[in-house]
Write a structure and sequence with these properties.
Jelly Rolls, 22% strand, alpha+beta, 14% helix, 6 helices, four-stranded antiparallel beta sheet
Length: 340
Amino acid sequence: MYNQIIILCYLLFNVYIGTCFHQGPIEPRRLQRWQGPIGFPGTPGQRGASVTKGQKGEPGQQGVPGHIGQPGERGVRGYPGPIGPLGFPGVKGREGSPGLHGPKGEPGLPGMPIVCPVTCPVIRFYDDEIPPEDVDLGSEERPSSAICKYITASKKGAITPADAYWVMEEEKFPVKCDMKTNRTCLITKENMSEWIGETKLNVPIAAKGIWLSKIGFDLNKFNTITRNQLLWLKRQSENVRQIIRVYLLNTIFENINLRILNSHDYLVEEKSSETTPMHYTIKYYQNSSVSVSGESWNYVDIEIIDDIDRLPVKDFYVKFKEEAPKNVFISVQLSDLCFG
């Protein structure tokens, strides 16, 4: 109470002084300096009511991509990995052009003496010599020692195409003389279709083709003469013409590729190329089929004319152009073999 009175007197004194000196009203902020002391803390309030946790918000939108960073330093070279599996075979390349002829080889060693079962054939032939004019016409009793081209004009009239002209004294055999071309021709089968049953071969379905010698082709039966007789004819001749008849059952010639192997192991094809310069000629016929045992066989003739060193042929390679039909048979027979 005493303090309140002192404060009241102090306030009244200030009012009086302010009025006498015409001062303005006392600012409220000056009155705040005389605030009382801080009171005691109040009692804690009650704990607020608990609430449940809200649901998770939706994901925000993806931010803008940042700038591409600087390239890092080159890493250390790793160890070699294991070897991978073998790849598929590549496509077969094209055949190259024939190479140049190599240099001439050294002379070979002398050959071994020939051992003949009875007597060795004596090969007589004429190079630049003119054969004697008294060449025998050649009978079975007295075979000629020369082929037909050496028969003189005065004696040609005595020979007809149907006559058998016997040659080679040591191993006689009959031939025919074609006086128009001066060729000596082997006597072949008159009716070749009768021999189909003995010479036909079943061609297996082989995508890569097959040599007829692998399935039973007999060259000795095909030529109809021995090796010595053939050598005798070749040594007196300059060129050869060979005609081969090809019989086919259950297919036609246009469906196959036929390659022929000549005496020097060179291939002969229908069309010449860099790799196979030799070619043959196909002769088609209007009625090119024959019936044998109720089966219809198609046939063509193949003609080859070449130097004496390359003929006659010795094997045939057959390959189908498309998928091979079943049960295909082939028969190749010598139609004509003439030496000139």
